[in-house]
Amino acid sequence: MTDLLRLSRLAFVDSYEEGGTLIVRAKSVRHHEPYGCCLLFSFSKMGTKAVRYCDHAIQGQPVWLEIKRQRFRCNSCGKVGYEVLPDIDTERRITKRFREHLQKDAIKYPFTMAAEINGVHETLVRRVFDEHAKRVLGKYKPMLPRVLGMDEIYLHKKPRFVIGDIDQGYESTGAYFEHEALHPSHWMPLPPTPTE
Ligand SMILES: [Zn+2]
């Protein structure tokens, strides 16, 4: 049978329409027991709960995966938790592949358009984008020189804007700086930062 889901850890059960939305029922190929409980990693099954997760629209039709999520009870402390679904962002109630797709669309299009194209609420697009931006930009540390030189210059018959690190000397910043007109004497340092 064709794998309609294309999620290796979930198996297709059946599908039906509900008010213009396609509901795809799926189940885990293997149940992943909840993490982070007691050292004695022992659980008992304790019923299931059907939960819906938003996925890619198919030919403009919104799609929700409906998964009977297995509930477990820890045999040591009695804590109850649900099976882990590696393909799903259970907090956002969305498949991880769809979340990644939304992240890309949120960069490409205005949020309202990304929401409309994907048939989701704008709030979800914003939230998904914010998390993505935080993760990517969290590691970004801009390296700025102590004194930043800026100038405009006519070079190779074109007006150009040049920028560079005054302290490091211009030679290190690139070939342009060998040009006589770009000698450090032509550079104007930024005004010093006021000290308190
Ligand atoms: Zn426990």
Task: Offer a few descriptive terms.
Transposase_HTH; 3 helices; 196 residues; binds zinc ion; 36% strand; Transposase IS204/IS1001/IS1096/IS1165 helix-turn-helix domain-containing protein; alpha+beta
Tell me briefly what this model is.
With 196 residues, this protein is of the alpha+beta class.
How does this model look, in words?
There is one protein chain. The protein has 196 residues and is an alpha+beta fold. It has 3 domains: 1-90, no CATH class; 95-141, no CATH class; 148-186, no CATH class. Helices cover 19% and strands 36% of the residues. It has helices at residues 96-108, 111-118, 122-138, and strands at 10-18, 21-28, 43-58, 61-74, 80-82, 88-89, 94-95, 148-155, 158-165. Strands 1, 2, 3, 4 and 5 form a 5-stranded mixed β-sheet that branches. It has a two-stranded antiparallel ribbon with strand order 6-7. A hairpin with a 2-residue loop joins strand 1 and strand 2. Helix 1 (96-108) crosses helix 2 (111-118), helix 1 (96-108) packs across helix 3 (122-138) and helix 2 (111-118) packs across helix 3 (122-138). The model is unreliable at 171-191 (pLDDT under 50). Zinc ion binds at residues 37-38, 74, 76-77, 79. Residues 85-133 form the Transposase IS204/IS1001/IS1096/IS1165 helix-turn-helix domain. This is Transposase IS204/IS1001/IS1096/IS1165 helix-turn-helix domain-containing protein. InterPro entries: Transposase_HTH. Pfam families: HTH_Tnp_ISL3 (PF13542).
